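anyone else get weird line breaks when pasting these?? whatever heres mine. first is seq + C-alpha cells for prot A
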Amino acid sequence: MHIPLMEWVTTALAASNGLPLLHHPANAHDLTAELRQVALAPAAAIARSSAAVISATPFDWSRAPATRARVFAERLTDVRPVCLRGSRNDAENCLLDLPPDVNVEVSASHLLLAGCEASLPAPVRTVLSAQGRDTRTLEQTFSEIFEAEAQGKFSVASIEQRLTQQLRHISPDMQRMLRHADTYIEVPQLLFLQVLSSEQEARRHHVTGPFPSARFRHSAGAPEVRDAMLGAYLRMPVDGRVHTLFVSLATPSTVQRIRQDSLTHAGQHMQHLFGEVPEAFMTARMQMRAVGPGDDIVRTLAELLHDGHQRYGEFAFGETREALAPESHRGVRQRPCQPVQTFPAAQPPTQAPPPSPVEVQPLASAAPAPARARTQRDRKTSIAEMKKALAELERLDRYYSSLSRARFG
C-alpha cells in the first residue's frame, strides 16, 4: 500500500523520538503540523520534544492521585450491596467488626478491597469476572492508572510545568521573594503507627491481651516517621517576616498563598499532604523538615513531589485491616442474611416482601367448603386456630423489624 511521504516522516519521527502515535482522525492534522515543525527544528529542540508533549497535555489537576479504593468504588458503583450476617465465632467472619447476629448491608467494593470476594453471591462473582471487574483485574487496572500518572501527570517534567504555570499567577512581589537567597522548602513529617482496634483483629495478628475499652489499641509494629507525599511549603523569609506558599498535588489550584503558620496549616490539611491514610494507621507528632532549594527551587520541588507520589503508592493501595492480618480469613464465605433476600441498591426492601403463608394458604384445620359458601359467622374460630394466627403475626413482626438494619461499607 502506498504511504505518502509526509505520513511516513511523521510515523518515523514519532517512533524515533518516543512521541505518542495518535490514531484519532481529529488529531491527525495537528500531529502532522507539529512533527513538521519538529523536523525543521534544530537538534536541541528535538531533544526537548518529550517535555513539550508533556506540557501540552491537558491534565485534570482537580483530581487527586488515584487510589485503589476509588478505582474499585467507581467501577462497582452499579453493584447492589450484599446482605451479610455477623457471627459470634470470628473464624466464620471474613470481615472484621461485624456485629454478631445482625444483618448488615456491605458494599461490593468493600468486600473486594477486604479480600472477601467469596462472600459475594455466586452469580454476582460470575458476572463480575466475565466483565473484568473481579479483584485481580481491578487491582491490575489500579496499578496501570497509578503508573500512568507517575509517568504523565505526576512526572517531574509535568509537575515542574504545572508549578511554573501557577507561580506566574502570584503577585510580582511574591515572585521576587521566591528568588530570594533565603527561600527554602519545608516538608511536614508525621509519626505513623499501625494499631489493632479490636480483640478479633488482635487474635488475627496473634496478639494476646485484654481490650478494656473500645479506645484501647494494641500496636502492630514499630512507629515510623514519614515525609508528606503529596505536598510541601515554600518559605520566604524577607524583611523580618516569613511568607508562605502551600503546594499540593491533591488540591485543584496546586499552589496557594497562606497566612497561617505552616505547622498549624499542615495539621488542618492532612489529606492534601499525606493523601488517604489507611484506617489501620494512627498518626501523631507532626514536625517540619527544611530542604535546600538547590540551583532551581521549582525543579527541586517538582522532584520532591514526584518522589513523594511514588512513595504514596503504599497508601494509595490502602490494604484494609482484614487484608493486613497475617491470619487472614479471606477464604471464609460470610453468612448471608436469613431469610435470604436480594434488595435493589436504591429501593427500600419493604416494597416486595415475600408472600405470607397466611395470605396464600388456608388454615390447616379448616374444613372443605360445601357447595353453598358459608359466611364468617357460620362457623366459630377454634382456640388452636387463634393461637396459630397469633404466632404468625409475631413472626411477621420480627421479620419486618429485621429489615430496619444498619448499613456497612
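and prot B, same format (seq, then C-alpha cells)
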Amino acid sequence: MNFRAFAARFALVVSCGLMAATPATAQFWQCAPYARTISGIDIHGNANTWWSQAAGHYARGHAPKAGAVLAFASTGRMRLGHVAMVSEVVSDREVLLTHANWSRPGRIETDVRAVDVSEAGDWSLVKVWYGPNGGLGTSVYPTKGFIYSDRATDTDTDTDSNSVDTDETKAPLAPVTMASLDISDDIRF
C-alpha cells in the first residue's frame, strides 16, 4: 500500500470516528423543544402554534412572570415564530430570557436581555439581545404574549394586566440531561 492510499484510509477512519462521536458530544437545539424542556410547558409543534395551542390548557397573559414562555409571532424573517422562557423579571419592561436557536444556530443562550418596546407596555413588541451585536438587536419582534406554566382555569387569563409578581422573579430551570462522550483516551489506530 502506497502512502497516498494509507493517508486516504487514515483520513476516512478519523472522519468516521469524529462523525460517530459528534452527536454524543454536541446538541443542536430548536427553540420549541428547548422551551418545552426547561419550562415544563408541554406544547409540541412549531413555535408559531404555541399561543393558540395554549388556549384552554395553560394560562396566558401579557405580564412577564419567571418560568413563563414568551411566544413570538411569525414574521417574514421568522416564519415559524420563536419561543423563549423568562428566566428572570428585571422590571415590568425588561426580562431575561433563556432560549435556543436565536443568535447562533442550535445554540442555547441563558439570561439574555429582552425589552418591551411597545407603546402600550403590553409586550406586543420586543427587542432581544443578539450575540453577534453584543447587545440588543436592531430588529423589533412582535409577540403574542406569555404562556404560564399554570393550568388554565375556566376563564383564560389573557388580560392586558402588566403587573409583575415580585415573589417569583427568578425561574428555576427544569433539569436537562444531555449525553456526553469522552473519547480522548479511547482512540486507537
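btw re prot B: Helices lie at 3-25, 31-39, 50-54. The first strand starts at residue 58 and ends at 61.
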